[in-house]
Specification:
It is a multi-pass membrane protein. With about 550 residues, the protein is an all-alpha fold. Helix 4 packs antiparallel against helix 14 and helix 16 runs parallel beside helix 18. The longest helix is centred in the N-terminal third of the chain and has 40 residues. It is elongated, with a radius of gyration of 32 Å.
Length: about 550
């Protein structure tokens, strides 16, 4: 009997957690960017920040998510520590509201929520309608899970073994606080753990005092996750907000725990329903903690800044600037961050392209060394972007988001290939030219510089196509690809003409000249890859493929002059 009860209990908790996940992910998908903008606007003072924390967390049903979003703002210096701590006080109150609502018997609403959610999810014309349907289904699952938990625990009242076990582990208030903290840390949700405590208290598996102690533990445990997940080990300042929130929670627990038994007796005289008693104590604890600490945030912020100083800024070019882990649960924001980081990577590639040609023309060995170091940074950024987007795609993306994720990875890979061509090919050619003290002919140098300029201009156009998806610019990029192919053939013919004239500088640099043209054309081919998804979405790709093949046939069949 005991094992069956435990198994059913675990199943109910799992369903509750999944419902919470659907509500959380649905709200983030539907309103994530709007919520971030709201949060940014509400940071003028601690009271508006407190209100924003309540509203944001009431929607997200996760104080951990609010903490991660706010921590990312704080770590980058975009938000002051005092309003950020006020947000977390509000978040702690906001996460209690759904518990208060679910303490009433509204399980009959679950079928209605399922039907509304299914209709919205299956027939919604827009992505936001589908996400609201996901939220409705998630709320229905939460109500169903609570119904399952209560039905599971009701017959278990006659199982003496289960009752003895529960009395043994909940007999000591301190042990209850520790258990509540551990369970909440494991399930990553104070809402789920408090709802479970409500169910146990309603079925009288635990005493009222034990239930309140478990609630204190749940509040403490929910402050641990942001400390582990939201901080960066290389930046001590990123620990300030989650540690400050943990200090607030811990101080509140230490203040209430010694008086837990008289508080329990007082509340029982006022509210005999143990489930509602648990929910009301949960909200009262967080409101009282907010009232006590909202005026003490300045001193706490000063202490945290002394204990956790700002990181000394290091100029590591391979470190991503825009990949915000807290944005992964909001695909539109995460994709925007990944695109910005890809442009940052593209800036490195553009500088490499410019420096390698300068090294080639001026015989500057120092520039060659700089290009090699920059290629290592490009490789690091490419790896970071791919890992970030891969994490994002582990969740459920709609078709448009999935396509954009693949476009970002594809462009990052092509930029990395361009960096390799610059480092492994063009830099080697520059080193060879410098070592042997070769000089291009004036005409040859001018041709290579002009070819390089057209390639660099196309790279800048590609950045615009990547961000805007402009069909006209994509057409322009592919048209330039055909023109550049013809320009390469014309430059090769002129080079051979100079060879026939027997010009010494042309003879000694002939292989260098032709290899540079070839590598720049290869780079341009990788640049043009960004245009294909744009034209494919516009339905123009087959026509361009056909035009490219027709243009290439006479060019390849044309013999070189002897």
């Amino acid at each position: 009997m005991g094992s069956l009860v435990l198994l059913d209990l675990m199943g109910g908790v799992a369903l509750l957690l999944w419902g919470l996940h659907m509500v959380h992910s649905g709200v983030l998908r539907a309103f994530g960017p709007d919520l971030r903008r709201l949060l940014a606007k509400a940071l003028n003072n601690r009271f508006t920040a407190f209100a924003a924390g309540i509203g944001l967390t009431a929607l997200l049903q996760s104080s951990t998510a609010t903490a991660l979003i706010t921590s990312s703002f704080t770590a980058e210096g975009l938000v002051g520590l005092v309003p950020a701590l006020a947000i977390m006080l509000g978040a702690n109150v906001g996460t209690t509201l759904i518990v208060q609502i679910l303490s009433f018997n509204i399980a009959a609403a679950a079928p209605v929520l399922f039907i509304v959610g299914l209709v919205a999810f299956r027939t919604g014309p827009r992505s936001r309608i589908k996400d609201i349907g996901r939220v409705s289904i998630g709320l229905g699952l939460m109500l169903l899970a609570l119904h399952i938990l209560l039905d599971t625990l009701a017959p278990a009242e006659n199982a003496p073994g289960v009752r003895v076990f529960m009395n043994a582990i909940t007999g000591d208030p301190v042990l209850c606080i520790v258990i509540g903290a551990i369970v909440t840390w494991i399930v990553h949700s104070s809402v789920a753990s408090v709802l479970l405590v409500m169910s146990l208290a309603y079925a009288q598996f635990i005493s009222p005092a034990a239930g309140l102690a478990l609630v204190l533990g749940a509040n403490l445990g929910s402050a641990i996750n942001p400390l582990i997940e939201g901080a960066r080990r290389d930046n001590p300042a990123s620990y300030r907000l989650p540690l400050g929130n943990l200090i607030n929670r811990l101080a509140g627990v230490l203040l209430i725990a010694p008086f837990l038994r008289p508080i329990t007796e007082l509340l029982l005289a006022w509210q005999p329903d143990l489930a509602k008693l648990t929910a009301e104590f949960h909200i009262a604890f967080n409101v009282a903690t907010a009232i006590i600490f909202i005026g003490l945030l300045d001193g706490l912020a000063t202490l945290l800044k002394k204990l956790l100083p700002d990181r000394v800024q290091e100029t590591d070019p391979s470190r991503p600037r825009y990949l915000d882990e807290s944005a992964l649960e909001t695909p539109s924001l995460a994709l925007a961050d990944a695109a910005r980081e890809t442009l940052h990577m593209g800036d490195h590639v553009e500088i490499m392209l410019r420096k390698v040609m300068a090294a080639m023309m001026t015989n500057d060995r120092a520039l060659v060394d700089q290009v090699s170091r920059m290629d290592n940074a490009v490789d690091g950024l490419d790896e970071a972007i791919k890992l970030y987007v891969t994490k994002l795609t582990r969740g459920s993306l709609d078709e448009r988001e999935g396509q954009r994720a693949m476009e970002i990875i594809s462009f990052a890979i092509n930029l990395e290939h361009i960096g390799d061509i610059i480092d492994k090919n063009l830099s080697e050619l520059a080193t060879k030219k410098i070592k042997r003290r070769f000089q291009f002919s004036p005409e040859g140098a001018e041709e290579l510089s002009a070819f390089h300029k057209r390639t660099a201009d196309s790279l800048r156009i590609a950045f615009g196509v990547f961000m805007s998806g402009d069909v006209n610019e994509a057409r322009k990029l592919l048209a330039e690809k055909a023109l550049l192919r013809n320009a390469e053939l014309a430059a090769t013919e002129r080079h051979l003409d100079r060879l026939r004239e027997g010009r010494p500088e042309t003879i000694e640099t002939t292989s260098l000249h032709l290899d540079v043209l070839r590598d720049l054309r290869r780079i341009h081919s990788h640049i043009c890859s960004v245009a294909y998804p744009v034209l494919d979405a516009a339905g123009e790709l087959p026509a361009h493929r056909k035009a490219e093949s027709e243009a290439a046939m006479p060019a390849t069949a044309q013999p070189l002059p002897r």
